[in-house]
Design brief:
The chain is α/β, with parallel strands linked by helices and 246 residues long. Helices cover 39% and strands 18% of the residues. Helix 1 packs across helix 7 and helix 3 packs parallel to helix 4. It comes from Mycena pura. InterPro entries: NAD(P)-bd_dom_sf (IPR036291). This is Nucleoside-diphosphate-sugar epimerase.
Length: 246
Amino acid sequence: MHIVLTGATGTVGSAVLRACLASPNITRLSILSRREFPLPTGEGLDTKKAHIVVHTDYTSYPSSVTDLLKGAEGCIWAQGISSTQVSKPEYIRITYDYPLAAAKAFSTLSENNKFNFVYVSGEGADPTEKAAALFSKIKGRTEVALRALPSTPSYSALNIFNVRPGYVDPTAEQRSSLSLTKRVLTGVAGPIFRVLVPDKVSPADILANVLVDLATGDGKPVPPGIGVEDEGRLVRCVGVRRMSGL
């Protein structure tokens, strides 16, 4: 199966990248990135099936890009940024405009007229947009907009999944590559979250496996259960943990 991945250098995306390279269900991996970067290596990681597609404008997908993605049947949209790092217009552009443009463009890539689009949202996302936090409003707005796409004839091939991780707990390997400041922060925050609110913790490798399963699955709604909402199209942090056996 051919899968598209974005955000491959971030905490969630880098864990997903390793999971994709290790998955026997993925035979081709197209990584959308603003720049080239070295792929991870190690036992069980098949880098031969991966190729980086350098792309800088995530609001537009010309044929020069979509031709390279042709035949893909799923996408894990792990690209994102903190609302504290950019201006409000730029945050909306990255968090809302980018995934909406991609989902629309990718809807015609698959030869079997089915495409799984897995959007990495976050706990605290508010589809009603009544929350005060910009993060909550825009993540919620994006979830709603993505879910509405399949009801439009032009995008009926899309199977949308919104996934809301909580505190993303980096793997030991990821922590070793962080800056000293971030290592200290995760070293303090991680144990606190794991002890006080374990249901709000999403271990990066566990989350990655669930995202890959959704992207490579049959596109049908997730079966009912704790942490699964919106007719099987929304998986919350506790749902991710349950699905992975935690």
